[in-house]
UniProtKB/TrEMBL annotation:
Keywords in alphabetical order: Oxidoreductase
Protein name (Swiss-Prot/TrEMBL): Peptide methionine sulfoxide reductase MsrA
Record GO terms (molecular function): L-methionine:thioredoxin-disulfide S-oxidoreductase activity; peptide-methionine (S)-S-oxide reductase activity
NCBIfam families: msrA
EC top class named in words: oxidoreductase
Length: 173
């Protein structure tokens, strides 16, 4: 069994776990923080906006079953790639959308996918999701892990605007 990791930031990490967790070849989806200047930040520190971190998910997957390219495509369909200042009801720097790459191949896949999405005409605004080199990833507190399973009612309430956007944008055809 081969194993690789991918890190994506797309707003609230609670809402980013479920779409990946349901895919074949995914071993784990961990909620955490990345791209900031504070080591081992807490949720409260990240929410303060003073750590530079964004909420993200670290996906461990089997590349012989699901490709990095497929993960990037799933990612696009979970976010509003035209909103650099948060996602849906979650606003601020800690909710910014970012695809983190670990090598040149991943960078090229992400950049090509972003350009394809821009050229598709699906969105009237520019695609502003950042594509950046991977930064240290810090695992979030236990109560954030698998939140959609632990507190389905609260998860449903928090994911509503995202789910409507995804349905209207990707499944309306």
């Amino acid at each position: 069994m081969s194993e690789a990791k991918a890190i994506f930031a797309g707003g609230c990490f609670w809402c980013m776990v479920h779409p990946f967790d349901q895919q074949p070849g995914i071993h784990s989806v961990i909620s955490g923080y990345t791209d900031g200047h504070v080591v081992n930040p807490t949720y409260e520190q990240v929410c303060s906006g003073e750590t530079g971190h964004t909420e993200a998910v670290e996906i461990t997957y089997d590349p012989s079953i699901i490709s990095y390219e497929a993960l990037v495509e799933i990612y696009w369909q979970q976010t509003d790639p035209t909103d650099a200042f948060g996602q849906f009801q979650d606003r601020g720097d800690s909710y910014r959308p970012v695809i983190f790459y670990q090598n040149e191949e991943e960078r090229l896949i992400a950049e090509k996918s972003k350009q394809t999405l821009q050229d598709s005409g699906r969105f009237n605004e520019p695609i502003v999701t950042e594509i950046k080199p991977v930064a240290p990833f810090y695992v979030a507190e236990d109560y954030h892990q698998d939140f959609y399973k632990k507190d389905p009612l609260r998860y449903k309430a928090s994911s509503g605007p995202r789910e409507k956007f995804v349905k209207d944008t990707w499944h309306a055809e």
